[in-house]
Amino acid sequence: MENSSVVSGDYIVVKALENGVTISGLTRGKDTKFHHSEKLDKGEIMVAQFTEHTAAMKIRGRAVVLTKFGSLEAGE
Q: Highest taxon of the source (predicted)?
């Protein structure tokens, strides 16, 4: 099996609605672990891609998240 079959290539866009929004990437595999995190301040935008290493993303704080499925707001 080729590695590219594991990578969906899907992107998300996260726009911080407050200072200190945290985006954490979680690994694939038997044991899910945090492998990277970024902090955004109000108004900052991050474009992130799911890869063969990144299976999930955790977003903490008030942010707008845009995906190919639509948009949603994280936080209170």
A: Bacteria
- C-alpha distance across the termini of the chain, in Å: 42
Count up the domains in the chain and report the number: 1
Rg for the chain (alpha carbons), in Å? Answer: 13
User: In terms of residue numbers, what domain contains 34?
Assistant: 3-74
pLDDT tens string, the chain, 76 residues long: the values are 455 555 567 899 999 999 999 999 988 878 888 888 999 999 999 999 888 888 889 999 999 999 999 999 998 7
- For tokens 């949603």, name the residue: 72
CATH number of the domain residue 15 falls in: 2.60.40.50
